[in-house]
Amino acid sequence: MKVNIHDSWKNQLNEEFEKSYFKDLISFVKNEYQTEICYPKGSDIFAAFEYCHFNDLKVVILGQDPYHGVNQANGLCFSVKDDVKMPPSLINIFKEIEQDVGQPFPSTGNLERWANQGVLLLNATLTVRAHEAGSHQKKGWEQFTDQVISKISKNRENVIFLLWGGFAKKKVKLIDTKKHHILTSGHPSPLSANRGYWFGNKHFSKTNAILKEMKQKPISW
């Protein structure tokens, strides 16, 4: 399985690709894709790194697992392919954007447009079996994506990390809080959002305010 990843990331992550855990992980993933239905499609597994280049990175949003429904996952966390029904968490993200920055509710849940502006949409686990949430956890993906976060923390400055929910918040230990900006809130899932832990966090306007302070172009959400 070829690792489709932009050259700017290869410079940061080449040593990870040579480690035994990563080789074992790729072997596992290859076998799964040959014997089971898995998502996203093979060419989209590393899509987050193709759309958002290391040197253009402004914002990191962390997810946990890819969507495991038919044709939902496209390699970017929280994102779905064009013409795919939006999952509840994504709907709540767009509702918050609508309330926060006045951006109209979009016609598509494909977040490639964010990634192209410097938003890394990173799941902790990059693959999953169809209809089996968490089925590829603890196989090595988390070790790899933790290294991604650590490399960003070490080798970039003033990146804005949006940590939504308990799982994402635990990743703060990997981030140098003196060099970077961290915004936390509840998860946009209905369970969390309906309890008042998501709506009103204003993460999208706050992110753009930070970018403007740093004389960077804000994100068109």
UniProtKB/TrEMBL annotation:
Keyword Nucleus appears in the UniProt entry: no
Coiled coil (residue ranges): none
Keywords: Cytoplasm, DNA damage, DNA repair, Hydrolase
UniProt superkingdom: Bacteria
Enzyme class: hydrolase
Compartment list: Cytoplasm
SMART domains with a match to the protein in the record: UDG, UreE_C
Active site, UniProt feature: D65
Ranges where the Uracil-DNA glycosylase-like domain occurs: 50-211
Gene Ontology BP, a term: base-excision repair, AP site formation via deaminated base removal
Cellular component terms (Gene Ontology): cytoplasm
EC number: 3.2.2.27
One of the record's GO molecular function terms: uracil DNA N-glycosylase activity
Catalytic function, reaction form: Hydrolyzes single-stranded DNA or mismatched double-stranded DNA and polynucleotides, releasing free uracil
Similarity remark: Belongs to the uracil-DNA glycosylase (UDG) superfamily. UNG family.
HAMAP family from the UniProt entry: UDG
Record's function text: Excises uracil residues from the DNA which can arise as a result of misincorporation of dUMP residues by DNA polymerase or due to deamination of cytosine.
NCBIfam families recorded: PRK05254.1-1, PRK05254.1-2, PRK05254.1-4, PRK05254.1-5, ung
Protein known as: Uracil-DNA glycosylase
Organism ancestry: Bacteria, Pseudomonadati, Bacteroidota, Flavobacteriia, Flavobacteriales
